[in-house]
Structure formats: C-alpha cells, structure tokens
C-alpha cells in the first residue's frame, strides 16, 4: 500500500493588496513511499498534485529533510539532466539571476567545458571572470547578508567549488553572487584580494544542464560534496539522500525510488478592503500571514496572482521600522531579494510594502491606514 506523508511548507505566506492585495499561500510537500522511476514519479505527481518537488532555497531544503519516513534513505526530486541541452550559467545565491548583458568575462573566457567561475589577482584585471574546473582547489569569496559591517569575506582555505559553497552557506550566506555584489566597493577596496594564497578565487557562478520538472528557474544545487560538478548532459535524475543531510546525488532515472511531490494551495481573492494591520491579522488568524518574497521565483508567483487584481497594488508582508530605519518581512525572513521602484522609495514612517499589479510589478511603500483588498488561500 502506498504510504504518503505530507508536510505543510510555509514557502510563501502571501497576503498581497488597494487596492493592494494580500495573499496567504502554503506549499505542501508529499513524501510518497512507493518505488517508481523518475518519469513514473513525475507523472504521478502531476496527476495527483502539482509536480515533483522543486527546491528554491536552503530553508525549504531543511524543511524537506524532515519529511522522510521508514527505512528509505533516498527519494526523487524534480531536478533532471538532459543529453541535448546547452549549459546555462547560474549564481549560487538563490534569487540572483544570471544576466547575459551583465557578464564580465575576461577576453577569451569562458574558454572550455569548465563549469565554475573564478576571478584572479593580477593587477587591475583581478575582477574579470574566467572559468575553471570545479574540482580545482582555490581560495574563495563568501557573502554574508546578515553582517552590515562586513558583508564579504576572503577565505584563505583552498577548497573545490562545492566545498567552498558549502562552507559559505554554513558560516555566512553563500558564495558571492551577482555583478552588483562583485562591483561593491567593499569588495574592490575593503578586501585585499592580492593577499589570496591561490592564483584564482572562486565566486558563486557555475554552469550546468540541470533543469526542474515544473520549469522553475531555481539555481539552488545541494549536491553531495563528492559530486563532480563537470558532469553535464548525463541524462540522469537527482534524488535527495536523507542520511547524508539531504544532499543530492545523480542517479539513473530508470531506478525505482520513493519520491516527493508538492502542491500549490489555491489562492482566493477577497474583495473586502482592509488596512495593512487588519489584513495581517486576518491572514494570521485564518491562514498564515502576509506574503514574503525572498527570491525571484517567489516574486514571479506572486505577480501572477497580482495581475488579476482590480486595483493597482497589492499588500505584502513588508514593513518599515521607523525607529530602526530598516525594512523587514513580518515572517522574520531577511530582505535579501529586492524589487523596489526606486522613484517611490522614501523610507517614511507608518509605511508598509506593496506590489504593483501591472507593469513590472515593482514594490512601493504605501500608507498603513489605506484600506485595500487581499488574497487568501483555502484550507
């Protein structure tokens, strides 16, 4: 008999809204203790749920680990590799998307089948990028979003790229990711990269041919530290290994294993305008809370719902603490991903964050006492 264990994952606790909406959304993971090939598992998940599970950040990964049951130590997830796909470059930090127009490769780079990116320390060109084997051992740069005094750290230990990524995620936030971070004055002037004791310095840029079953663009990878990052076009599928801390490994897709599906809860639009605090109370009482957006994939999901609103904005769970002069998510998530309309950002008191329901779906600050509609999820 099929054993299914479900866990409610608070991936998005939306509440959007004028005329701003609120949107309270829950994800639900389902561990299916029935052995199927990856394709059979995909078909099962699509018929009975939404799809095989996609993992977008490390907090979701940690929640996923808790869903295992019984004697099974492995389960399929929604990541798969193809044999006829071109490699794509990704940033290690979830929510930071690689933009071809913002690349900063040195002349002649990338120049091969090497899958990880480095900068080097030869004078004025040390912040140009190059590609290198992920299995080389080099110094590396970490980024810490929770340390306002020192966001970037040059690590003098030599590790391969996957080991470096694991180190940064455990002790900081992630490997340094994105052109904005790499061009930050603290990196260029605050760190003396010329003191590195390896010729090259790993950054959080990598390329692969792995894709998610549901088409999600999540760049999160959580491979076993022994994984060969140059293994591309393998035609294999990924599974999470519970007794290895949930880390992933690649496997022949025809093997039969348990698997994990996910559901997207149904979101309903409630056309009863409320102030931001009223909306927050309603969602916390009847659902989970106002929407939190920490990565670009979550932004896309929220704006898909927001576009059907009859008002120009929707509420989010983003609030401004006037005395501390800081924006924060009421779910206690860090404001790492940002999508502000800079023209309307003034950091005034008595403000909370809202999203445009049209156009580029930028965030704006909005007066707390304005009464706006909101979205909720069915139980």
Automatic annotation (TrEMBL):
UniProt xrefs under InterPro entries: C-type_lectin-like, C-type_lectin-like/link_sf, C-type_lectin_CS, CTDL_fold
Keywords carried by this UniProt record: Disulfide bond, Signal
Domain spans labelled C-type lectin: 29-143, 152-262, 262-377
CDD domains reported in the protein's UniProt record: CLECT
One Pfam family it belongs to: Lectin_C
UniProt signal peptide: 1-17
Protein name according to UniProt: C-type lectin domain-containing protein
